[in-house]
């Protein structure tokens, strides 16, 4: 059985984008659409049995009609082929107001086998290669899991711990009821202890979310744990039941500049009553983010130094941020217009940021008529670090010269 596992599409992010003259849409919307279409094309080529999306379809729970249309159009080839589609509600999909539909509930009405999960559920998904057991664990929303009485007098920490307990007990109960001969997937949108965060994720928020251990998720007869929420692709249980974050399909910020973006193709094979799981990470054509820092403080021609640094990177069609550090007195010699011209092939210039290295201004040595030679020289030497090791020799030489001049005068 073949499954495509993806998550964290975040359609609707427009940072660093500009209006595309052909479509009239923000270029970053088109970037996500291109990655999405690439993923669906690969799914059709692989003849997958299930398209499994583990949460966060949009950047917020109130996507525009255009964003919803793009998402639906990308899914349509799967639906037309008769491939089951499973969508989990993520934290970005869920509305703040109780009772409102999530941003992806509408896709449950798509033609074909499309199912949206906003509450925990154990179910059977029928595919062309047979049934698949699915434990669906969407983003743990407090109001959907507990009554007001459950958490009315509890602290935030106690509520989080109670949610964790409810999910763990749910998984343990489900595992005992599963048919061990059938392919089985646990799909969730939440944090797992030990996961390496992508640069765009805020540790302060992750720390206060419900969090689970690998051992609480990777329970037999589960064959694969498909996760969303953290944008960096990783397997948290190498050598055991795979516990995998798929990664997002597009970059969100410069803190993800070096992270590969993509999705996961999963295969669960059953032979003679035994099951074996393998998977492959597939990169999408995500927009490149290039973050350059150039130190030109020691350069007599800072503009040329910056241009040389730019020439060493594939600027074309990338989103570029340039930061350079320059001496204060040389700042005026940086030709920003030439730099912008060199960046003309970039998809977008996020920023050109300058950091000035201030000139060290030495205090003037004040010498009065009554100041002795020794005192004046000591003040001068104390303000010049390079002369301090020679302090005594210089003073002695100066005093000797002074004595000699006095002798000549007399």
- Spatial separation of the terminal alpha carbons: 110 Å
Spell out the helices and strands N to C.
EHEHEEEEHHHEEHEHEEEEEEHEHEHH
- Average pLDDT rating: 87
- Count of separate structural domains: 3
Which blocks of ≥5 consecutive residues have pLDDT under 50? none
What fraction, in percent, of the residue positions are helical? 25-40%
Shape field = elongated
How many strands in all? 17
Characterize the quaternary organization of these chains: single chain
At the fold tier of CATH, the topology name of the largest domain is: Purple Acid Phosphatase, chain A, domain 2
Number of helices: 11
User: How can the largest sheet be summarized?
Assistant: 6 strands, mixed
CATH class of the largest domain: Alpha Beta
CATH architecture of the largest domain: 4-Layer Sandwich
Kindly provide the radius of gyration, computed on alpha-carbon positions and rounded to a whole number of angstroms.
32 Å
- How would you classify the helix and strand content by structural class? alpha/beta
Proportion of residues in extended strands: 15-25%
Assigned CATH superfamily of the largest domain = Metallo-dependent phosphatases
Strand order of the largest sheet: 4-3-2-1-13-14
Protein name: Nuclease SbcCD subunit D
Domain Calcineurin-like phosphoesterase: 1-232
Subunit structure: Heterodimer of SbcC and SbcD.
Keywords: DNA recombination, DNA replication, Endonuclease, Exonuclease, Hydrolase, Nuclease
